[in-house]
Amino acid sequence: MHRVKMYHLRRKVHFVIMSSVFNTIEEIHSIYDLKGSLSGRNATEKEKASGGVLKDQDLLDDNRKFKLGSKKDAFMEQLKKDAYFLAELNIMDYSLLIGTHDRTKRIIEPIEGDDENNTSHVVHNQTGSNTPFRRIQKEKEKNIK
Q1: What is the pLDDT of residue 126?
Q2: What phi-psi label fits residue 51: left (phi over 0), alpha (psi between -120 and 50 degrees) or beta?
Q3: Are 100 and 27 in contact (CB under 8 A)?
């Protein structure tokens, strides 16, 4: 937790810096920042083209559905608890950040020396942060060198 004094506002502002909210070895293909509103909740064409964060209306336009199965009740209960907690702190501007992994984009490679059984495995992205923004930054860095 960090704090800065905002003299022009005559108050202190607390904030948290997080390295990554997506703790997975799977590649994150798209990210949605959901606020529960449709007013002004579209990513720009530039944001979409660069792999930027998508918004509520983009989720509907993409016809995305999240299947949580047996975890749905626990997920909804946690959302409720989070919303109540933030409301108690008088925090009115909050959102749900969702990262999606497209299984059809997984890289499958055969295991060497196992031609007889025709076995393969998934190659995971293990380069640290794997958000679309980070991937674009890494590509730009490669091009500069």
Answers
A1: 47
A2: left
A3: no
